[in-house]
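User: I'm new to structure prediction. If I give you an amino acid sequence, what do you actually give back? Let's try with this one:
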Amino acid sequence: MIRAFQIAVVSDSRPKTQDPRPGSRVVGFVSCVLLSFCLIGCTEPKEEPVWEKVKIGDLAPYRSGKPPQAQLLKTINFDVDIFEIPAENISKLDDIWSGLRAKYRRPMRFDNPHAFSANSFSVCFGQIPMWNRVGDLLLAAGGQKITKAALLLADGQAESIVVAGLDSPRTVFFTSTSGSREGANVGPGILGLRIKAEKIPGLRGVCNVNACPVFSPPILSSSIPQLTARAKLREFPFTSAAFGLRMSPGDFVFLGPEKYVGDQTTLGGLFFSKPEGSLFFSATERKGPERKPAVRIFLLVCTGINY
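Assistant: Good question. You get back a string of structure tokens that encode the predicted 3D arrangement of the chain. For your 307 residues, that looks like this:
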């Protein structure tokens, strides 16, 4: 490199003469330009942040029936099965009551347990290991499933399952929480079982469930909030027949009458009994269906808590 520098100095010291190659200056200029582009092209491009890149997972659709986790609804899910058995077989439910009470002891909440029983309501807690046994006993009692409903409740939301329709005004007698005999003037409308679920803060996979028989008048679809609110004021909750408990997925509640009450002017009779009867098929005898007075049985199953 020192030698090259010396040669360059000597060359500059010579007297200047006209360049015998006129195109050499042009060639040198073009070479400098090309060299500049080469130097610029060798600069490493700035890499795009990885989080700004499009990923394959962003383009591929999710599998049917399995939405992304962020899109899952936060709900408490229940199945409600309503069975009917011939009223003459109600004593066969004793095996279910005794079996569940002997195996499970989950605390129940009542406004008044004596009033709950006086209205001919009875309830027991159970879990999945006992499910098949309960189903077999219901079949042995001539039971048949007549309704199955699925409820997806948001935290604190309530929904009603229709139990019986009232086509005219009537007085329904019941035992109140104070233990007195009272009458509620209701109808027309429906008698239902209102179910409400609430997540318990700090506990995962557990919820508080409350169920209450409620009379509701017909509510016509209306965009006027005042009309809907007025219809709500005509509802009548039978709180003396309400109950509550803690439930997790796999838990169920068995709800039925302590005895058959055919009187449709009483809460227990209206809620559980069907004096006009239903058609029942004999599982052991070869004969046609027979219409018999029926008893309703309710199974409330917690199927999931998505929180």
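You can read the tokens as a compact description of the fold. Here is one thing that stands out. The helical segments are 2-13, 24-41, 56-59, 94-103, 113-118, 131-140, 225-233, 267-272.
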